[in-house]
Amino acid sequence: MQNVVNALRALEAVAARQPIGVGELSRALGLPKSTVQRSLRTLHDAGWIRRAGGEVTRWQVTSKVLQIARTTELGLRDAAMPVMEELRQRTGETIHLMVPEGDAVVLIERLETDKPLRIVLPLGIRLPLHASANGKAVLAHLDRPLGELPGYTATTITDPAALRAELEQVRARGYADNRGEWRSDIAAVAAAVLGPAGPVASLSISTPASRMPDDLRAEYGELVTRAAAALSEHSARR
């Protein structure tokens, strides 16, 4: 069983840091090189990873991983769309669906507001875990070191102790918020979609900063928390 766990951890690390060599992977996982090499051979033989180009052997994931990720993503999108549409109808604002990927969350679907003043984020954009509502919603349910916390605006939380305190609040109330921490003109509230092994996605209501006063922020937070809980129940049944 431990060999399987090591191989899965290695696959996750390769996907997050690719292309990556054995030494770097060993340090990232805290495992001996010999153990990492066995895991890489297993993953390579099964077709999950391949050697990247170059003189030094480095590894990257194959299309097999991407195909499975795409299938899972499409299933999540299908389940999320009616929930997202209900949120948009109730708030009149832009609704985002994001998935965790390494040290970021990635936008995979959005339903835009009809209001003329809007902020459009492109599909595929990556947002930092510590400086976005979607990211903090996910990060609150992950057991991992915080790492580096770069600043993006004057309100970005860059102090680990302050961020840990905020993540405790996220877990207590069910949703995270963003007060211009990634871009000063964006406000958002988000809640994690939880699967059996942890967060699989996050839902958010995103607005220009001027359109989310504190009373509306709390109301939207409750709405997005209920919506994410409904999607979590669907995920648990799959």
Helices and strands in order, then pairings?
Layout: H1 2-17, H2 22-29, H3 33-45, E1 49-51, E2 59-61, H4 63-91, E3 94-101, E4 104-111, E5 126-128, H5 133-139, H6 160-173, E6 176-179, E7 186-195, E8 198-208, H7 214-237
Antiparallel strand pairs: 1-2, 3-4, 3-8, 4-5, 6-7, 7-8
Helix pairs in contact: 1-3, 2-3, 4-7
**DSSP strand count:** 8
> Which class best fits the helix and strand makeup?
alpha+beta
Task: Quote the CATH topology of the largest domain.
Answer: Beta-Lactamase
The CATH class of the largest domain is identified as Alpha Beta
User: Which residues sit in consecutive blocks of at least 5 with pLDDT less than 50?
Assistant: none
Mean pLDDT level: 88
- Any idea what the CATH superfamily of the largest domain is called? GAF domain
What strand line-up does the widest sheet have? 5-4-3-8-7-6
Helix content: 40-55%
Number of H/I helices: 7
For the report, how would you describe the main beta sheet? Answer: 6 strands, antiparallel
Structural Rg: 19 Å
Order of helices and strands: HHHEEHEEEHHEEEH
Count of discrete domains: 2
Shape: elongated
Q: What separation lies between the terminal Cα atoms?
A: 24 Å
What CATH architecture of the largest domain do you see? 2-Layer Sandwich
Portion in beta strands: 15-25%
